[in-house]
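FORM 7B: Structural annotation worksheet

SECTION A. Query
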Amino acid sequence: MSPAVDAVVLDIEGTTSSTGFVTDVLYPYARRRFGTLLAERSGEPEVARALAQVRTELGEPDAGPARIERALNAWLDADRKSTPLKTLQGVLWAEGFARGDLVPHFYGDVVPALRRWRAAGVRLYVYSSGSVAAQQAWFGHSPEGDLRDLVTGWYDTQNAGPKQEAASFRAIAEDTGIPPARLLFLSDRPGELDAARAAGWRAVGVRRPGEPYAEQGPGDHPQARTFEDVDPLGSGA
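SECTION B. Predicted structure
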């Protein structure tokens, strides 16, 4: 039987992995290291580009390291989906994963499902507000080993656009070459699911107990408690 969709596109936080791990472990890890990063590595191309974007967001072209660090911490406190914030977090998290200071979290149902779907010919993509570098580090250092070979492509707010805009999902569909109706997006956030559907995608809300959007639910989208409830291989998707 041919798959019901050609590809599954995955959100991370609240979907494949615990939001609590991000807020309770990763955010403090980055916060403790922002100052050193700004002081010692501002000349690195990726860091320098992110710092220029911070200054643009602030409307302060001459903002110095102390001002930028305050802004990053304020945006972190507000859980702002700022591209330069996510970039700088990603730099720090990738290093933490590589050193073994951090071990990414995955819900127990996720990796077996991803391996099963991939073996059946369904392509897998990641679309997260976290930077591509952070995504790749996350999947590359999972408790079950390097999972990057399972993933065909990676998207974030920089190379695709904001996650609650249909245009971002249209851009991803065009980049993958897959018709929108053959793409399935999994996320816990109703606004993201709405945007995917507006772009012609299929969308399923992942409603894990204890996650921030679990009580609210995914609106009028189909929902799944775990990846075991998602069937991209047949009519259940």
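SECTION C. Observations
The CA atoms of residues 67 and 121 lie 49 Å apart. The longest helix spans residues 19-40.

SECTION D. Sign-off
Analyst initials: ____
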